[in-house]
Specification:
With about 325 residues, the chain is of the alpha+beta class. About 45% of the residues lie in helices and about 10% in strands. The chain has two domains: about 1-95, Phosphorylase Kinase, domain 1, CATH 3.30.200.20; about 105-330, Aminoglycoside phosphotransferase (APH), C-terminal lobe (Aminoglycoside 3'-phosphotransferase, Chain: A, domain 2), CATH 3.90.1200.10. Strand 4 (about 85-90) and strand 5 form a beta hairpin. The mean pLDDT is about 95.
């Protein structure tokens, strides 16, 4: 995709669509459109207009559903996401207003702020949970715990037969270790189903400080973005990225009282569905399955891509499969 995104033909087509969208919104361009980022998974263009800066984004085909997903989220919970100015679902094109600074721009992010982040995201999840049809129609990946092991087994058997030059190729040793871990994955899924009422909703799969906007002076809620890795799964799995990030930042373990308070702030939003002990156990089990979610995000981008052209990410799929294989020891 990076080769396509740097081509003149793609740029001309994207800019024509952007111009049309800007005019339809009653705005005018005030400067040149600039391509500020080109990565494997997406490219972004900045679009200066009379109403302020806009951002254009196109995702890798493996994450093309993000535009449609955000379009639906803006209807379901508009205060929690950035409502797009224009969307082209078939291309995964998204044109959105700039919402200022993210949490990552703060010098420090304290425990209280993280409690707010996870609680507000849980509120978004509870509202989205009532709209599975809209999310499926938008193309969101489905990865429910009870089906995850079966899906992975089919994929591994296929991927071990790919040519080694394919970025999604899995060698025999790793494939066997992942297959040996599947009974543990199934046991975890069964335990999760009995720890608390079965749940399914939007799982961000990459909830960190770079993907949360600081509220503007006239806003009361945080806004979440970058749903390219998202899927329909057990919502508590979303805790894995912030918990792992906080463990690293605070040089702590998940049992640290500060991290437990962050997790409890998230679970409080779900408190009508079980006891505190039941929900904490469900959160623990859901996070065990997180490597399957990260693996799936990378698989849908890397499969079919030449390994030699992706030196910076060629080993990422193996990394997450190694983490899946570790589940057997847990």
């Amino acid at each position: 995709m990076p080769t396509v995104w740097t081509s003149r033909s793609w740029r001309d087509e994207a800019e024509a669509w952007i111009h049309h969208a800007v005019v339809n919104a009653g705005q005018e361009l005030t400067g040149p459109i600039e391509q500020v980022r080109v990565r494997l998974w997406s490219t972004q263009l900045t679009v200066p207009t009379t109403a302020g800066m806009l951002w254009f984004k196109e995702n890798h085909p493996g994450q093309v559903a993000e535009a449609a997903v955000i379009d639906e989220l803006a209807r379901i919970a508009p205060e929690h996401v950035v409502a797009p100015l224009a969307v082209e679902r078939s291309r995964g094109w998204l044109l959105s207003p700039d919402h200022g600074k993210t949490l990552a721009t703060l010098a420090t992010i304290d425990e209280r702020t993280w409690c707010r982040v996870v609680a507000e995201f849980a509120d978004l999840q509870r509202r989205v949970a009532r709209h599975p049809h809209e999310m499926k129609t938008a193309g969101l990946t489905w990865l429910l715990p009870e089906a995850a092991a079966d899906d992975l087994e089919v994929q591994i058997e296929r991927m071990r037969r790919l040519p080694p030059s394919d970025a999604a190729y899995v060698g025999t040793d790793l494939a066997e270790r992942v297959l040996n871990a599947l009974p543990a994955v199934r046991r975890t899924a069964r335990s999760l189903a009995t720890a608390a009422p079965p749940l399914a909703s939007l799982e961000h799969n990459d909830l960190h400080q770079n993907n949360v906007f600081i509220p503007r002076p006239d806003e009361s809620a945080l806004r979440f973005f970058d749903f390219g890795d998202a899927m329909w799964a057990h919502p508590f799995t979303t805790l894995a990225v912030p918990v792992q990030g906080l463990c690293k930042e605070w040089e702590a373990t998940p049992d640290d009282p500060r991290i437990r308070r962050v997790v409890d702030s998230y679970l409080e939003v779900w408190s009508d569905l079980g006891t505190g002990a039941e929900l904490r156990e469900a959160a623990r089990l859901a996070q065990v399955l997180h490597p399957l979610h990260r693996y799936e995000s990378w698989r849908r981008m890397l499969e079919g891509s030449p390994r030699a052209e992706l030196p910076e990410v060629a080993g990422t799929l193996e990394y997450w499969l190694e983490r899946v294989a570790d589940i057997s020891a847990g």
